[in-house]
Specification:
Blueprint: H1 13-40, E1 42-49, E2 55-61, H2 62-65, H3 69-83, H4 88-111, H5 117-139, H6 164-172, H7 184-191
Antiparallel strand pairs: 1-2
Helix pairs in contact: 1-3, 1-4, 1-5, 3-4, 3-5, 4-5, 6-7
Length: 192
Amino acid sequence: MSDKAEPPETEPAPDRRAAERTRVLLAGVLAAALAALAASREWTSTTTTGHAGITATTGQSGTDLAAWALPCALAGGAAFLAMLATGNRARRILGVVAALAGLAAALAGVLHLGSGAWPVTLAAAGLALAAAGAATTARAGRWPSSADRYDGGPAGGDAIAEDPVSLWNALDSGRDPSSPNITASAQEKGRS
């Protein structure tokens, strides 16, 4: 045994960028879902007694008190879901949309902070949605695009043979088997 500590294995840069993209997009979708949930819940309730002594309780939801909160949360969530199928330029634009929607939802929560826990939840989720949108706008240019995994392999890669194993390995590694090239990792996977 040697006394030297081995350096930790690090992910290749494209894998780190893809992981970052996944984390930010997931955070945006979850924040939008939480904001939508908070906006649709009952924020206040009032009990009144009528002339005949009958009491009635009426509640007001977030959509009653701040009508724009739920549409903003849904717009932010839709922007993040659309980012799953778009390129980096469109992601930047959708990031701005999500950030603005998150700020508007957060404002709805802040304006009604005294109405219970749901407005506080909405404000926090709206801020998280805005932060995820801003992070997307700032970082999307560095992320791999959705189509990158279907591009051909590196120059000098071996052509796909009629070998069914090579075709399946190309599919397993996320490559288009109809492309003229497959990566060496796909070929190695078939040999193991």
